[in-house]
Design goal:
Elements: E1 24-29, H1 44-52, E2 58-59, E3 64-65, E4 71-76, H2 84-100, E5 104-109, H3 115-125, E6 130-134, H4 154-162, E7 167-172, H5 177-185, E8 189-192, H6 196-202, E9 210-216, H7 238-250, E10 254-261, H8 272-288
Parallel strand pairs: 1-4, 1-5, 5-10, 6-7, 6-9, 7-8, 9-10
Antiparallel strand pairs: 2-3
């Protein structure tokens, strides 16, 4: 793929014109082939880009503006509809090239399964990788109704690769009893219900390490983000999620890649969810791309 010719549509606000000069590369993973409830997250990346037009370029939280960093929007990866296996392979190949070129992968989903090939590729480059996973759901199943390619499995699969003790989940409020038991028995960190305070406790232990950050928009309470496939009441506020992103940004970890997934615009005609996701992504860019 010629990255400078990858996408001809709208791009995230202030995207650079040159792939070669960028430190981070934005890309969409428009896949919702394995969702267990409501489809539609494949339309998330395009709508997040469109909503970014309404953003301010300056973050008063971080005292940085988008002109301070260099990033390129390569557009959506073309994925074959309904073919999960091939789609994951294509995502892996795309990200492998980004990493070979020294870029920070900055992904937008799509269902949460799209994070798996990205995390695997980043782990292949960074042997001491840790995962920060912010989500309503454990995503620790080995399969869903007989299908191992499922948006309910990516955290279990990456834990099997890098070791459960290197995976840290926050905001979890939904999952099978067996998933919580597996995490406890294998030394994986799960913070139930809250994100910010337990994150503050964990981050010092990750100082100096490469970290991949994956955020599922459904960690937010449906009052803050109704536009997602698997809504779950009792979530955190958008203010807490913003503060959590800033806490990671100010910590001593080195973000080796990140994504924001599971935005399904069709379920939110108010466009609150895509506008929230767009601002969250701006803060991730400004906080994680040094």
């Amino acid at each position: 793929m010629k990255f400078d010719e990858a996408y001809s549509g709208n791009v995230f606000i202030k995207s650079a014109d040159s792939y070669n000069e960028a430190d981070a590369v934005i890309y969409g993973m428009p896949m919702d082939w394995t969702v267990s409830w409501r489809p539609g997250s494949r339309f998330g990346p395009a709508r997040i880009r469109e909503a970014s037009v309404g953003l301010e370029e300056y973050s008063p939280y971080l005292d940085r503006e988008l002109d301070d960093i260099r990033y390129y929007d390569a557009g959506d990866i073309p994925l074959p509809f309904g073919n999960a296996g091939k789609s994951l392979d294509l995502i892996a190949g795309f990200v492998r090239q980004l990493l070979a070129d020294g870029k920070i992968p900055a992904g937008m989903g799509g269902e949460h399964l799209v994070s798996l090939p990205v995390m695997k590729e980043v782990a292949a480059v960074h042997e001491d990788l840790a995962i920060i996973h912010i989500d309503a759901h454990t995503d620790l199943r080995t399969e869903y109704e007989g299908e191992e390619h499922s948006h309910s499995t990516p955290i279990r699969k990456i834990a099997d690769i890098i070791g459960p003790r290197n995976v840290h989940s926050f905001g979890i409020r939904s999952g099978m009893k067996e998933e919580f038991e597996w995490a406890r028995e294998n030394g994986m960190h799960i913070s139930k219900f809250d994100v910010l305070e337990p994150l503050k406790e964990v981050l010092p232990s990750l100082s100096g390490r490469p970290v991949y950050v994956t955020i599922d928009i459904d960690v937010l309470d449906p009052a803050h983000a109704p536009g997602t496939g698997t809504v779950d009441c009792g979530g955190i506020t958008s203010r807490e999620l913003l503060a959590s992103i800033h806490e990671i940004a100010r910590s001593g970890v080195r973000v080796a890649g990140f994504d924001l997934v599971e935005v399904a615009p069709v379920y939110d005609p108010s466009e609150q969810t895509v506008n929230t996701a767009s601002k969250l992504f701006r803060e991730m860019l400004l906080g994680f791309v040094k």
